[in-house]
Amino acid sequence: MPSAPPPTDPQRFVSTIAGSGLTIYDPIEVGDPSLWIPTPELEALLDTELRGITLAGLPLRTRSKVVKEHVCKALGYPVPTSFRKTQPRFPGQFFDTYVQKSNNLQVWNEELSATRRYVIIRVNAEGTIARVKVVTGDTLVELDTTGTLTQKYQACCIPGTEASELIAAEDTALLRPFVWTSSSTTRADTPVMHPAKGQLLPIASIYDRLKLLVRQAFDDTGIDQERNRGAALHRLVCQALGYAGYQDDGQFPDVRHQLLEVKLQTSPTIDLGLVTPSSTEPLNVPQIDGNVIRHCDVRYAVFYANTDGKRVELTHLFVSTGEAFFTRFPQFQGKVLNKKLQIPLPADFFDG
């Protein structure tokens, strides 16, 4: 009898699902430690198992069916005799699949969902699967530069006289039991690890460490390189929190190990994507001690900055829970999306 995969191996989910008798249509609670596959592990499994599969010469409908069959096998699910027209197509793990020969992603006849996963499968010129990426709807919104997504949730940031503000003195009631004042990062910890009991810094400690970044500056890569600006700030944040290195896998929140989202503002309008910080929707991370973590439990570090086109200087810091976010930053009203969404994926989207 083969031994079970180690607890850090994504194959452990495949083994458990295969033995569970579940189908892709059976619901699983978000964060279930045995059955819910977190987004990084979902990407790793599908990228490993689907790479190299050829789809050359297949009609579009057949290609879609073949891909779904391979996805079922990769995750340990039985292949259904026919695939239902559900939204999303894989309700159990809450994701849709998109096969892409170009970088123009099209989503038809429905809005993006902040918490839904989008499995984007890159096919090369020979018709072979070359890469699989998995992102949430909220991540896709941030990639849109064309205005096809006409409106996102937004809030307003107006700095006051204080250089730094701790908006929520304590974490949410749900998160508080898992936050230890003695917590500290070690050289073995990484920013993209899943959060765990006893490894979360209290929000006040995060604030104390990050406020030391105010008045620091870094090179400005220009308004067209907003992602690079954000990466530069993210590096400083990781260093301030005690991590040995910088990592960012593009998932929400930015520093997943600390349930921390980092925002850089050079103007008052804060783009929030498809979900509000105060939302009680489940967050796509493993449960902590049997508790489903929600978006409102995430901690936010909002840095305000000035730039002269050459250097970005951090002038203000605001730290809040998602739950208390709108007590300091007024929310703009309204959110509208077009029915047909065309999202140009960045040239480096499938890199890494």
Structure description:
- α2 crosses α3 (60-75).
- The strands form 4 sheets. Strands 6, 7, 8, 10 and 11 form a 5-stranded mixed beta sheet that branches. A 3-stranded mixed beta sheet has the order 1-3-4. Strands 2-12 form a two-stranded antiparallel ribbon.
- The protein is built from 6 helices and 12 strands.
- The chain folds into 2 domains: 11-143 and 338-344, no CATH class; 153-327, no CATH class.
- The protein has helices at 11-20, 39-50, 60-75, 137-143, 203-210, 226-240, and strands at residues 95-100, 104-107, 117-123, 129-136, 153-156, 164-166, 217-219, 260-265, 269-273, 299-307, 311-321, 341-344.
- It has 352 residues and is an alpha/beta fold.
- The radius of gyration is 21 Å and the shape is globular.
Structural topology:
Elements: H1 11-20, H2 39-50, H3 60-75, E1 95-100, E2 104-107, E3 117-123, E4 129-136, H4 137-143, E5 153-156, E6 164-166, H5 203-210, E7 217-219, H6 226-240, E8 260-265, E9 269-273, E10 299-307, E11 311-321, E12 341-344
Helix pairs in contact: 2-3
